[in-house]
Amino acid sequence: MTTRKTTYEGSEVAGLLLAAGGGRRLGGHPKALLTHRGRPLVEHAVRVLREGGCTRVHVVLGARSDEVRARALLPDCVLVDNPGWELGMGTSLRAGLNSLAGSGAGAALVCLVDQPGIGPEAVARVREAHTGETSLVSAAYEGVRGHPVLFGAAHWAGIAATATGDRGARAYLQEHVPEITLVECGDVARPFDIDTEADLAHLE
Questions:
Q1: Is 99 helix (H, G, I), strand (E, B) or coil?
Q2: Is the pTM of this model over 0.85?
Q3: pLDDT of the chain along its 204 residues, tens only?
Q4: Closest C-alpha to 54, from 79, 21, 76
Q5: Strands (E) located in the chain
């Protein structure tokens, strides 16, 4: 008896966590090192990706990366340094996608470190909508596109070519709207950012 193969080449969805920001509006305190539930926020974000089904996780670091490496427990993660992090999130997205090239992963599921209201349920929903290397999937909140987002490997080069400043993949996604699968996550996640001191009230 033979067992039907249920996976396809490039079927792995890798988690890609962008955690390089310096927290300029937070007095220069890197977001990865903010305390949430007693530990650095970057640990929480990695755990969300893993619990959402991503066995491979790449973490892009920038501001005070040596301190993040020393303080945060990130076992089995691939840590990617982005020396150009001050130029904006686009550089981190490019660094992360470049780190996945040749890894065998068929898609990257991208999360931001400063969105602790997004948990594994939203990650799992977006990941489960992946159908192949041409997939483009985005969480939606009352129909409005947000994070996390999933980029099939066929899109990585195009995204990297257009990711500039803090826009990340926005320009690329705007050009490919008809191809994006929206997955409603408003019932399981809250997509707020930790950008200002007032936002710190969201941390536990």
A1: helix
A2: yes
A3: 333 333 445 689 999 999 999 988 887 889 999 999 999 999 999 999 999 999 999 999 999 999 999 999 999 999 999 999 999 999 999 999 999 999 999 999 999 999 999 999 999 999 999 999 999 999 999 999 999 999 999 999 999 999 988 888 999 999 999 999 999 999 999 999 998 889 889 998
A4: 76
A5: 13-19, 35-36, 39-40, 57-61, 78-81, 107-112, 136-141, 144-152, 180-184
